[in-house]
Amino acid sequence: MTRQRGFTLIEMAIVLVIITILIGGLAVPLSAQIQARRIAETRHDMEAIHDALIGYAMSHTFPHPTLPGEVRHYLPCPDNNNDGLEDARNAAGLCTDKRAGLPWITLGVKGADAWGNRYTYGVDRIYSNDQQGFNSTPTGTPAELAIYPKATCTAPVVMNDIPAVVVSHGPQGRGSLNMNGGTPLAPANVAADERQNLNVASGLLPCNLTTKFVSRTPTEDFDDLVIWLSSNELFNRVCPAGGCP
Questions:
Q1: Which distant-in-sequence residues (6+ apart) come within 8 Å of 143 by Cβ?
Q2: How confident is the model at residue 148 (pLDDT cuts 50, 70, 90)?
Q3: pLDDT per residue over 61-102, tens digit each?
Q4: What is the DSSP letter of 117?
């Protein structure tokens, strides 16, 4: 009679160790793939936001007060209370804030990035003023919004004189508002370059200016995704051929 021999506990343990190693080796690439997919999804959504801002400017106009037949365009105000709607302007046509949340309901876009965090939105007041606005050129002084490679906000500048900027606070979401309005990390725990992009009081920003943002190659302590509207692009899309009717 032939005796059947089963696995010993040692053999089973060895097999389990091998399986664990194999699964662990697959988990890292899978996690990287998921992260890459979320980054690509967020970039795609931010392009939709970019186009929605241009579409808003195209459809929101008012007649010029002193030039008959000429219209002016303007961009939306930021959303300061996380309701998805742009804030009201004051009597002079100016937005309450230069930087706050993205008015995603007003624009008809997604309200959060792929990690569930709200976007930060900055707009220059000479482009969002619904009593002055712009056609082929802005009305008023040059725009204050600028993008820098570091939170020192000194030369060289990546881009200046820009009408609007949108920030996703990246995979880590450090210091950002989540969909419920909470902050995952206090601003003090965020590196300076990321802190400069947060929707917080200007006193918590390294440059102490809500008109300055940072965009650079991602690193361990900086994973923000930043897009902006250049004035040339806005004029060419909204007012082709050098002017608006």
A1: 124, 126, 127, 160, 161, 162, 163, 231
A2: very high
A3: 887 767 777 788 899 999 999 999 999 999 988 999 999 999
A4: B
78 occurs within a structural domain: yes
- Which residues on adjacent β-strands are paired with residue 63? 71
87 to 78, 97, 128, 195: CA distances (angstroms): 6, 8, 11, 23
> In terms of pLDDT, which residue wins out, 238 or 242?
238
Residue 1 lies in a domain: no
Task: Please give the tally of structural domains in the chain.
Answer: 1
Q: Let me know if residue 4 belongs to a domain.
A: no
Range of the domain at 127: 10-242
Higher pLDDT, 245 or 70: 70
Model confidence, pTM: 0.85
| Domain contains 159 | yes
Residue 125 to residues 76, 109, 173, 209, Cα–Cα distance (Å): 10, 22, 27, 14
Q: Which residues contact 213 (CB under 8 A, 6 or more apart)?
A: 122, 145, 146, 147, 148, 165, 167, 196, 197, 226, 228
